[in-house]
Amino acid sequence: MSRWTLLMLFLICCSRLQGQQDIACKASEQWRQHQWNAHWITVSQDAGSKYDYGIHRFRKAFSISAVPETFVINLSADPRYEFFVNGTRVCRGPARGSLYNWHYETIDIAQFLKKGQNLIAATVWNYGEWSPGAQISMYTGFIVQGESEQEAVANTDGTWKVSTDRSFSPSLVYLQDVGPGDIIQGETHPWNWNTADFDDAQWKNAEVKERGQPAGTGTQYLRALTPRSIPLMEAHLEGPMKIRRSEGIDVKGDFIPGKEALKIPPHSKVSILLDQEYLTNAYPALTVSKGARSKIAVTYSEAMYLDARNKGNRNEIDGKHINGFVDVFYPEGGSRRVYSPLWFRTFRYIQLDIETTTQELLLHSFDREFTGYPFKEKGRFSCNDPALQEIWKAGWRTARLCAGETYYDCPYYEQLQYTGDTRIQGLISLYVSGDDRLMRKAITDIASSVTPEGILLSRYPARYNQVIPPFSLYWINMLHDYWMYRDDKAFVASYLPILKSILNWFEHKIDPQTGLLGPLPHWNFVDWPVKWPWDDRKPLGGTPPAAIAGGSSILSLQLAYALADAAALLEVFNETALAAKYKKLQQSIGEAAMKQCFDQQRGLMADDRTHSRYSQHASIMGILSEAISRDQQQRVFEKLNSDTSLTPATVYYRFYLFRAMKKAGLADRYTSSLDIWKTMLKNGLTTFAEQPEPSRSDCHAWSASPNYDLLATVCGITPAAPGFRKVHIAPHLGTLKWVKAAMPHTNGEIRVFFEQRNGRLTGSITLPPNLYGVFEHKGVSRKLVPGTNVLN
């Protein structure tokens, strides 16, 4: 057990004791929060700007007389680091956050130490002007703080040495928001720089900057150090890649594994296309020997391309070319040199384009280390329809690839935590893994982006500000989601001021003449239907025109939808007057929308007061906000689902389409409404795309929503009380004959089995200890108790 774990257990025990023990506990906690003696260190002044592109190596040697049982350090960097002890990589970090929550990792490195001389080292890199869109930075820096006096020998100060690695330069081919590729020159690379026997006599002493300051300590500088709230990323090696085609050399089967080194003769030009057979996120590492002055270009792609946009079936390669990020390696002729980019790559296909000169090149191995948030698949779903089980599998892979140190909208293009995607991702995390830590972090991250206006940025952490006002409303829904699934009142209560700030902004945008939202500033994205195209003159991409002109029923009703969740939260936290005010506002918006936007003849909600446009989105929000009364909801949903003239909801907004379907009492149609996902599987996708073809991204977080609905809608498992203290189970099997599933709960596991025969439902529901609930199906209701409840 690590010193840090023991310390935490000690603190817990101390909180239950009195007198001197309680004082000791507080003293220990005070030391941890206030007595950081380590300083941020950076590159020496003659090495270049600490703000620009640069890959920097830091190292420090120290001696110990014996290996201790524990050796705990806290460490962080700006922007990114990779940390080594005696040549072994220990961790990567820090977990992305903001300047007000700059995360540090706490690591016990005792197992990596040895008696005598030891070497701790870190690569710290800054992509400068090409930094990822999700990466915030103050200036290039590194910090290590020993947990106690024993570990203080590791503290960053002027005894650390630093050198700028000039072997790296940015590869700007296919540059996207995730940063550049890496070009690595073997001749100038400082091989074995992180080992004790490396000669660092020419290295400079690091420049010492301000002392590290934990958050909440009267921080004078913007980087407020905060403990990492999520675990380290999962890491495991991916299986062999298949050789799909080659030019200039005859190779087949798996690439390299189980064979001697692949020899590329001198004066050769070779191209090898590799297929992982599924999309993944991984750190590639290519081990080579010889090949002096050769060139290896590595291209990573989600799919092969027919032309600039179209990909066709993802399993097919004939007549297609690769297109994507490129790393370039220039071997210098050494033995078993490992070339690896600094950041992970997302790919299904990889193409190696190799050119040799006078020396043969030996390819020994091509490892790919998977990386991602360490979610465990505790939820399960199976049924008599194999297609739904494939949707579950691909959906979970989608959710996993869109989760790292933050949630990602997509791993290939942006890796940004957008609130619209993140709300859906949080629910999937709760239902399939039961792990709420990344959802908590997301709520915190996004809340810390609050603007002077009082609303939130649409995505955070982020280098560049972007405001999508409707996403602030989804943050309120997400906070409400968390409250319903986790008994964590203090956490939820701490964010009520942000909730109020958001609603205050929207309340002042209501036109008193119409009772609906007037013209709204910023980018009021709703969905990606082709009928709402991008226009360079106006921010129309995914935006209903009335959002700009004013009187948008969609956005007004989305506000009403969020007001309902906000009122529920405020009421439970004893802000009854404000809750009542927001309930009244919800009702008045609904009434205004019904009076001015609802078309009685068509039986549908128009997008605007002039009834010039109609979409599924308007009626969806009309149902969810309860502006459309319950006795009309089913009839309206029938029309919005059958009227082909309406602007349709795409993959993203179908999450809300299904919420409306369920609210209207038509959830039995869900299993027959997944054609978009089935089509993607038929097209060879192993994850779900951003939108119908042609889609930019082959893996997009919001498209994984079936992994929520298969458990929450088909199996009908939802909370019946805040904190999931009670459960409500109302299955909707539709055309399925049987379903068997499980969902993690804080008390244990909820398991269900349902079977339909001749219109009758039988099966069983097993609840964990201390969880009670209600089962409902077609007018039948019965109480559920812990243990197995047989349905007959």
TrEMBL record:
Residues 377-707 form the Alpha-L-rhamnosidase six-hairpin glycosidase domain. It comes from the Bacteria. Residues 80-210 form the Bacterial alpha-L-rhamnosidase N-terminal domain. Residues 716-770 form the Alpha-L-rhamnosidase C-terminal domain. Coiled coil: none annotated. This is Alpha-L-rhamnosidase N-terminal domain-containing protein.
